[in-house]
């Protein structure tokens, strides 16, 4: 069988220990064991099948998502899965749903911004799913500008309550995932008003729906905001709209770790930075970087396996056409994405450590690394999601026409993934935050602070900053050029963390050698892509640029025999890949043909509508022809 033999042959060429690379990719043997076991548990459960998604109506699609979520919860309980195993199960169910926001935002917000007392009250309810929560920050009129939010939370000292209200149409909460049809509660971000004074944005826990009949509570108008990009994709999620008409909540439902409101209506600031109100966004941004490596590696796995199976032109002596993976143009498009997937994996590991470290320091009232954590999570979220969205689209194109079929898995992956460039912070707005951080950092250089990083990449950032730092320093006046410096800074971090990864103990025959090749491909690819920066800032000479280019092409040849093994190391099941082109067995053509006939359009040989619309035309033509 052509495809199968092709991939078997490719696997025999591997020059490194794939099983050890699986451990490197997973992060540890333990993590590999858990993800392998849980991904297969999901793959073998018919309730979690994904192949019908694009053919369902919005209501059937959503109901099926609820069915899957309920079944996932049932399996978690039945199997007594740990938090880690449960998160893996929800990950491999692979369908945007309210659970993401309940577990990924609502709970972390209460943990990060609630007092001990509030955590003791609300977390047990949330962990046992006795309530379902979402994160309601964005409004119809404001998303990026959090300080522009209009929802009000006015303290009423008569009743010891906050009155939550939507004063304008643009203050309607708009976009929160899980809000439209499922969540019973929300963390609502609104302007704290005490005695007519506006104290800025804070988080408030608000019940939205009855726990008895799920109907909206008095004063609550709530619904779904409508279809989004694509047919299946993110339409499994009930992104919602929410309006308040003077809804009253107890004072103790304002999240009070950052600031407290006393019974007398006095605002007391605690000793933690006010920016902790933004803490959930930092947490999710670092998760999103890890998710980017998953999404990109998934697309690269599909495109790499298909590139080894697909033969086109170039008849060889044995009369067989050439594998498209052997074309230099295919390699120059595909291998940098393979390298980027590994690079984002490792920078995501580092970012997770940075986030944990910041949180530990916060416990000890050490806020010194909070600005860097914000800048790194914001910048790397922006960089990795933009590169991943573009990379998934490139992988679709690398698969030719068949990449455009839903059965390739790539259109759906693209449609689900691309909002990552917007949610949790628009990517440009986040880069402007990094630019602001760089301006402050540059201003502190020489006072004992020295930049660190790989020379050429460091030089590029420094030079770009020098060129543009004369520009206005206000957030709104930051020039587009500073965004360029912010991107350069984030790329420096990615390369630096890849190099640091290589300095760790890396067991397994040939594993370190392959990672070194991928690290060099990523670094030289970025240098090639931004050659203007490196040359214009004098970081490299034209001769060096030419040498770097030649080295890049030589590295592609080094990776070529290992490409299939490098994507096998992701250890994805066919269920998770959900792609005929990316099947582990390479059995592409028979499966493509088989999938085609499953389309409902093929339920009848003559399509509905023929008699009403087509036959009259043909008959008329026939009559005309006889005249
Ligand atoms: C930062 C802004 C752009 C501007 O803020 P502003 O208040 O105006 O302040 P500035 O003047 O710019 O800055 C003031 C100073 O504060 C510093 N700062 C700013 N932000 C932070 C921060 N976050 N942390 C620390 N410090 C910060 C800043 O540097 C200044 O410092 P200095 O004065 O210079 O010293 C702000 O408006 C902003 O952040 N805007 C973006 C808004 C945003 O991101 N919205 C997101 C809404 S929520 C959302 O989109 C959700 C999407 C859900 C998608 C699904 C994702 C799921 C995947 C992951 C989770 C899945 C897990 C599943 C788990 C399981 O199943 O188990
Ligand atoms: C699928 C999806 C899920 C979401 N889930 C949630 C959720 O669960 N909870 C929640 O609260 N929100 C959620 N959101 C909302 C999301 O957080 C916002 O859409 C996001 O923060 C961007 O804000 P915005 O839509 O106001 O874009 P805007 O800020 O209006 O962006 C529009 C354009 O203006 C530009 N721009 C804005 N400000 C500046 C500036 N200062 N300088 C230069 N350019 C600027 C942007 O770069 C962009 O090009 C979700 C959004 C999506 C798409």
Automatic annotation (TrEMBL):
The keyword Zinc does not apply. GO terms for biological process: fatty acid beta-oxidation using acyl-CoA oxidase; lipid homeostasis; long-chain fatty acid metabolic process. InterPro entries: ACOX_C_alpha1 (IPR055060), Acyl-CoA_ox_N (IPR029320), Acyl-CoA_oxidase (IPR012258), Acyl-CoA_oxidase_C (IPR002655). GO terms for cellular component: peroxisome. Keywords: FAD, Fatty acid metabolism, Flavoprotein, Lipid metabolism, Oxidoreductase, Peroxisome. It is found in: Peroxisome. Residues 278-439 form the Acyl-CoA oxidase C-alpha1 domain. Residues 463-619 form the Acyl-CoA oxidase C-terminal domain. Its cofactor is FAD. GO terms for molecular function: acyl-CoA oxidase activity; FAD binding; fatty acid binding. Residues 17-132 form the Acyl-coenzyme A oxidase N-terminal domain. Pfam families: ACOX, ACOX_C_alpha1, Acyl-CoA_ox_N. Belongs to the acyl-CoA oxidase family. PANTHER family: ELECTRON TRANSPORT OXIDOREDUCTASE (PTHR10909), PEROXISOMAL ACYL-COENZYME A OXIDASE 1 (PTHR10909:SF250). This is Acyl-coenzyme A oxidase. It comes from Carya illinoinensis.
């Amino acid at each position: 069988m052509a495809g199968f033999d092709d991939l078997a042959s490719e696997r025999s060429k591997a020059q490194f220990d794939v099983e050890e690379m699986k451990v490197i990719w997973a992060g540890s043997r333990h993590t590999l064991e858990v993800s392998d076991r849980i991904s297969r548990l999901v793959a073998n459960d018919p309730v979690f099948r994904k192949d019908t998604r694009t053919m369902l109506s919005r209501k059937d699609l959503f109901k099926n998502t609820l069915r899957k979520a309920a079944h996932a919860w049932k399996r978690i309980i039945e199997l007594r899965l740990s938090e880690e195993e449960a998160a893996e199960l929800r990950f491999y169910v692979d369908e945007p749903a309210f659970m993401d926001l309940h577990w990924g935002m609502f709970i972390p917000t209460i943990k990060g911004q609630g007092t001990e007392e509030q955590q003791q009250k609300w977390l047990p309810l949330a962990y046992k799913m006795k309530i379902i929560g979402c994160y309601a920050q964005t409004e119809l009129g404001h998303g990026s500008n959090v300080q522009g939010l209009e929802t009000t939370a006015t303290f009423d000292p008569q009743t010891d309550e906050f009155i939550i209200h939507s004063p304008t149409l643009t203050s309607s909460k708009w976009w929160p995932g899980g809000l439209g049809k499922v969540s019973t509660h929300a963390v609502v971000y609104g302007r704290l008003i005490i005695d007519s004074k506006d104290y800025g944005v804070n988080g408030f826990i608000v019940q939205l729906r009855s726990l008895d009949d799920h109907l909206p509570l008095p004063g609550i108008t709530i619904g779904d905001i409508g279809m989004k990009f694509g047919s299946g994709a993110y339409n499994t999620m009930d992104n919602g709209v929410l309006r308040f008409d003077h809804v009253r909540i107890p004072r103790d439902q304002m999240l009070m770790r950052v600031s407290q409101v006393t019974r007398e209506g006095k605002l007391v600031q605690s000793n933690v930075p006010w920016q902790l109100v933004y803490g959930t966004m930092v947490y999710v941004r670092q998760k999103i970087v890890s998710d980017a490596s998953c999404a990109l590696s998934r697309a690269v796995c599909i495109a790499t396996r298909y590139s080894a199976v697909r033969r086109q032109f170039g008849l060889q002596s044995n009369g067989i056409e050439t594998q498209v993976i052997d074309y230099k143009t295919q390699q120059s498009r595909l291998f940098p994405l393979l390298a980027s997937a590994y690079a984002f994996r490792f920078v995501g590991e580092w970012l997770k450590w940075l986030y944990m470290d910041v949180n530990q320091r916060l416990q000890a009232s050490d806020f010194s690394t909070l600005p860097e954590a914000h800048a790194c999570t914001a910048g790397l979220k922006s960089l990795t999601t933009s590169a991943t969205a573009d990379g998934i689209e490139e992988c679709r194109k690398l698969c030719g026409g068949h990449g455009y079929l839903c059965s390739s898995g790539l259109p759906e992956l693209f449609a689900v993934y691309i909002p990552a460039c917007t949610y949790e912070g628009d990517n440009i707005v986040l880069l402007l935050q990094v630019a602001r951080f760089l301006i402050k950092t540059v201003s502190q250089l020489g006072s004992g602070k020295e930049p660190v990083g790989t020379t050429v990449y460091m030089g590029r950032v420094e030079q770009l900053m020098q060129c543009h730092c004369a520009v206005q320093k206000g957030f709104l006046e930051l020039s587009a050029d500073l965004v360029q410096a912010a991107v350069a800074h984030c790329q420096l971090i990615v390369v630096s963390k890849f190099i640091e990864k290589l300095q760790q103990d890396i067991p397994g025959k040939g594993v370190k050698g392959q990672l070194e090749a991928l690290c060099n491909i990523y670094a030289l690819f970025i240098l090639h892509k931004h050659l203007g920066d490196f040359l214009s800032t004098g970081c490299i000479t034209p001769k060096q640029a030419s040498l770097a280019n030649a080295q890049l092409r030589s590295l592609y040849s080094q990776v070529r025999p290992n490409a299939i093994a490098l994507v096998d190391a992701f250890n994805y099941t066919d269920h998770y890949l959900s792609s005929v082109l990316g099947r582990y067995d390479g059995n592409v053509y028979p499966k493509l043909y088989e999938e085609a006939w499953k389309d409902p359009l093929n339920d009848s040989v003559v399509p509905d509508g023929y008699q009403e619309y087509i036959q009259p035309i043909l008959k008329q033509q026939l009559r005309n022809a006889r005249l």
